[in-house]
């Protein structure tokens, strides 16, 4: 039976909330894929992750250089793959933040002239307590990383890293390994 509440506009989750670490964990690394992206929307990712990582959000927001440094630290642990030729950039002059994206974004071409169209995130979170396992989150999305204001539908799957790989996860692991 269809759950009508799943499409209730009052039961939605913001995009950034899916990137936020679970309680007791911190962001470690992420790989994202999208067909198209625009620089301004893509900039929100390392900035949001830096804000999540900040001990005092108000302090970092009142010191733009601290926010920039936090975003730069995150950039070393984040990569976004996008279809070649589908990056939308504004006509404004490049800023230090935009140059940050040059380290994060990788353009890819699908084999045999196809389009690289997956929209997903694979995130790894490390525990604050060493005895806890690392956690993974897989997001499968319907929208690209653009300022499109359409609703997005997403599947969010959370799990822990185990000693033995699970066969059911092989297709996702194979996909990630094949990225350039």
Word description of this protein:
The protein has 6 helices and 8 strands, in the order H-E-E-H-H-H-E-E-H-E-E-E-E-H. Helix 2 crosses helix 4 and helix 4 runs parallel beside helix 5 (96-104). The chain has one domain (21-178): 2-Layer Sandwich (Endonuclease, Chain A), CATH 3.30.870.10. It has helices at 15-19, 39-53, 57-62, 64-75, 96-104, 170-178, and strands spanning 25-34, 37-38, 78-83, 87-88, 105-108, 120-127, 135-141, 154-160.
Short description:
With 180 residues, this protein is an alpha/beta fold.
Task: List key phrases describing it.
Endonuclease, Chain A, alpha/beta, 180 residues, two-stranded parallel sheet, 26% strand
Instruction: Write the CATH fold name.
Output: Endonuclease, Chain A
| Rounded average pLDDT | 83
Rough shape? Answer: globular
Which CATH top level class fits? Alpha Beta
Distance between the termini: 41 Å
Residues in β-strands, percent:
25-35%
In CATH terms, the superfamily is Endonuclease Chain A
Report the CATH architecture: 2-Layer Sandwich
The radius of gyration over CA amounts to: 17 Å
Helix percent reads 25-40%
Order of helices and strands: HEEHHHEEHEEEEH
Q: Ranges with pLDDT <50 over ≥5 residues? A: none
Architecture blueprint of SSEs:
Elements: H1 15-19, E1 25-34, E2 37-38, H2 39-53, H3 57-62, H4 64-75, E3 78-83, E4 87-88, H5 96-104, E5 105-108, E6 120-127, E7 135-141, E8 154-160, H6 170-178
Parallel strand pairs: 1-3, 2-4, 3-5
Antiparallel strand pairs: 1-6, 6-7, 7-8
């Amino acid at each position: 039976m269809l759950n009508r509440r799943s499409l209730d506009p009052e039961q939605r989750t913001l995009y950034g909330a899916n990137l936020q670490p679970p309680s007791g964990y911190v962001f470690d690394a992420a790989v994202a894929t999208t067909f198209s992206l625009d620089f301004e929307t893509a900039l929100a990712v390392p900035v949001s992750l830096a804000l999540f990582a900040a001990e005092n959000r108000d302090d970092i927001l009142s010191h733009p250089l601290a926010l920039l440094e936090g975003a730069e630290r995150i950039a070393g642990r984040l990569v976004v793959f996008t279809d070649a030729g589908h990056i939308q950039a504004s006509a404004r002059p490049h800023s230090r933040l935009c140059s940050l994206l040059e380290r994060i974004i990788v353009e890819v071409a699908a084999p045999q002239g196809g389009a690289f169209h997956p929209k997903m995130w694979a995130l790894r979170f490390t525990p604050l307590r060493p005895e806890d396992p690392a956690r993974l989150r897989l997001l499968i999305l319907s929208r690209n990383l653009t300022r499109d204001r359409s609703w997005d539908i997403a599947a969010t799957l959370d799990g822990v890293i185990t000693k033995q790989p699970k066969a059911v996860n092989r297709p996702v692991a194979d996909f990630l390994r094949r990225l350039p």
